Amino acid sequence: MKELPIELKRMLDALGAKENVPMAQYTSFKTGGSVRILAEPDTAEHTAELMRLIEAAGVEHYVIGNGTNLLISDKGLDAIVVRIGEKMANVERSGRTIIAGAGASYAAMAKQSVQRGLMGLEWAAGIPGTVGGAVAMNAGAYGGETADTLKTVTYAENGAIIKETVDKTAFGYRLSPYCAPERIVIEAEFELNDDDGSAYEKMTDYNKRRREKQPINYPSAGSVFKRPEGHFAGALIEQAGLKGTRIGGAEISTLHAGFIINAGGATSRNVYELIRLVQQKVKEHSGVQLETEVKLLGEF
Ligand SMILES: Cc1cc2nc3c(=O)[nH]c(=O)nc-3n(C[C@H](O)[C@H](O)[C@H](O)COP(=O)(O)OP(=O)(O)OC[C@H]3O[C@@H](n4cnc5c(N)ncnc54)[C@H](O)[C@@H]3O)c2cc1C
């Protein structure tokens, strides 16, 4: 990494940024090399200023939340990683509105909304990422998606803090206008409905289904592949005879073939090679090209 400008160095120091941090502890796959600098801003203003300085310096950078949809190279990242986590996790409620810091746990926020008699996020109680990650990815499950109840998003771009009413038409399947390297989500406002009496039951049912059908006791990043039009990735992988296939410590889950798990001692390279193998075999078997939902950071 090139020499950082003094202003950026001072900002990183003020934020208590750490150097040479192993990313396995910050990702749900529990794999990956070290990142050169990890900074965790604590306010909207600091986030905007940090991003402005990083961009002005032209330094390679990444934004992460809880790392539950990431595969980070074993070679690490010679970059600044900006993590929006516990330091920006304030959640406020007023009537049917919830305003959450981007670093708040999406699942905890969803559960609390149900406990408070609200409806609209009961499907999200098993998603292990942050609110910022859910907005950026337009996370979804069981027929719901983040954009459904999202009202405003506050984000930083070019050093400015911008709050805007979301344009729902700009969201798609695991796609949002906020998953751009120059934008960083700071806060999100959700407008929910009053519970019609079924929210708790639905949430409990969805979580039960997850426990039964997903290998949640192993490190993973959830579904590795996007759902291809007219198919289910897990079914295609199973039909190609790949369930249980292993490369090193990475394994195609025998419980849900759409998941790759770290069955013990896996490297990111193991996971990457398994991803490529799945793509090749599924293409040969069914003609469908699977695309990754998981974001690959760094060199593989
Ligand atoms: C067991 C398990 C089950 C899962 N089930 C589901 C599911 O049902 N549905 C689903 O959609 N996903 C699921 N996931 C995947 C993952 O939890 C979601 O994609 C989640 O929204 C990612 O949030 P995160 O904070 O971990 O983001 P990260 O993994 O850290 O980052 C993901 C992407 O979001 C961007 N990002 C993160 N924070 C911000 C921010 N503040 N501003 C701008 N960009 C940001 C990153 O740059 C990156 O591109 C599952 C994962 C696991 C491990």
Structure description:
Helix 1 (6-14) runs antiparallel to helix 2 (44-57). The chain has 3 domains: 6-83, Uridine Diphospho-n-acetylenolpyruvylglucosamine Reductase, domain 2 (2-Layer Sandwich), CATH 3.30.43.10; 87-194, Uridine Diphospho-n-acetylenolpyruvylglucosamine Reductase, domain 3 (2-Layer Sandwich); 215-297, Uridine Diphospho-n-acetylenolpyruvylglucosamine Reductase, domain 1, CATH 3.90.78. 27% of the residues lie in helices and 27% in strands. The longest helix has 19 residues, at 268-286. The chain is an alpha+beta fold. It has 7 helices and 19 strands. A hairpin with a 6-residue loop joins strand 17 (250-252) and strand 18. The radius of gyration is 19 Å and the shape is globular. It has a 5-stranded antiparallel β-sheet. Strands 1-2-5-3 form a 4-stranded mixed β-sheet, covered by helices on one side. A 4-stranded antiparallel β-sheet has the order 15-18-17-16. The mean pLDDT is 97. Residues 28, 63-70, 84, 102, 127-130, 132-134, 136-137, 139-141, 178-179, 184-185, 216, 220-222, 295 line the site of flavin-adenine dinucleotide.
